[in-house]
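The instructor's notes for this session suggest beginning with a concrete chain rather than abstract definitions. Hand out the sequence below and ask the class to guess, before any prediction is shown, which regions might be ordered.
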Amino acid sequence: MRIQHWFLTDEERGNPATKLDAWSTGNDVRPLIHGATYFAELKTRVDGLKKDDLLLFADWRGDPDERLTEGGPGVGDAMAAAASRGALVRGLIWRSHLDRLRFSAAENRHLGQEIEAAGGQAILDTRTKPGGSHHQKFVILRHDDDSAKDVAFVGGIDLCHSRRDDIDHMGDPQACPMPEAYGERPPWHDVQVSIQGPAVAEVEKVFCERWEDPAPETRDPLRRLRDHFAKMDDMPPLPKPGPPPRRAGTHAVQILRTYPAKHDAYPFAPRGERSIAYAYQKVLGRARSLVYLEDQYLWSTDVIEPFAEALEREPDLRMVIVVPRHPDQDGWLAGAASLIGRVHALDRLLAAGGDRVAIYDLENNQGTPVYVHAKVCVVDDVWASIGSDNVNLRSWSHDSELSCAVLDEQEDPRPPYGAGKFARDLRLTLMAEHLALPGDSAELDELCDPITAFDAFAASAARLDAWHAGGREGPRPPGRLRPHPSPELTRFRRIVASPLYRLAVDPDGRPPSLRRSGRF
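After discussion, reveal the predicted structure:
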């Protein structure tokens, strides 16, 4: 395996202004599946910070009272306690749209204020394209006395309500408002990774580039005045980054991003950055056997095209896709409109791959749908990506996003041979959960084969669907998979996505020349 066959080169990234290296080797990357797993480890790590250590974070939404473990503390208290012990705490939180659109402006301000009160600094950041957001979700911990303890957390999990769920998927007791179908405690499926090794310094560069952007964090004079009186407009210089942590494992890591092309350009991405899109295009051009994808949205025929082209090119390629059964919001903006986008995307995939494409959603053992918020892709058990980005035009061109792609120098010893251990283990772990297989099951080895894995999902979903159709008589079959799309999608097939849909739901952040050409 040659890294440059799977990862983008500097030239292919298409952003010479960034300080990021093309990739780093010698890392140890661990998947943290479920918010409860991530939050528990984050608490342990943050509790260990001392004077002159560093905590940097960026988030789409932050709820200061969200408990990191069942007994607490809340996110805000944990970070404030680190600041009170002398750790340097700095945060970049998206200053979101109006709360009446059910985003998170008030919550993000409250988290920033708690950190400020303890001596840290958290900025409410609107340096985005109009209608866009800062969707990156990462935390960096650096230690003054021992860089071997340095760690970065990257993925799809926000530091907020509804995220602290576990493998049983009974939901977070501190729940966000969701459609009624998900119940009072919406079950939530999500993934983050822990990174140790040289790549920690690469994630730190992402934070530093945003923090050091000389543009004001907001151009709204009233908001700037409010921030000034709340002492939330000061952006003191960051300390000079220390050397990268030493080698910790066998994983090569590439940090991938999206930034939009905007009039007041980012100094670190003057024409934006679309390395997430470019990475998908590159690896899908190499896909031969199996693409496994978990995604919150799966919209946009523009973005789905490289997946469809791979299916058309490779007659033996299969795709397994896991998505939410229902949108996360009711109404036109993110409800019906998102379903329209998914219909068009699925139509294109099914036309390209036919019965080699399988789409599922999840439910817990009580029959409540599980909201799939994960953003995970595994290609041929070699390349794996975990990040904040969804498969839609917004994530590939318009919002800020951060993803971690992983290749493993260690080959998995099981056939079919040639797989990387990290990518295969990640896929098998996720599949085992959805099939309700114990971690030590002999069936896991059988799932190494792409066709066996594809058929196992189909059989499990069919059994559970038949049980529901038969009135739920007898024991519930094991597993959580249901076939998707659900019947509700059919009523949107004749609705044509309007310009308002594209602008509000799935905007395009590419430069005009690329937008006109259809290229990224």
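Then share the key points. Residues 332-353 form the longest helix (22 residues). Residues 97-105 have pLDDT under 50 and may be disordered.
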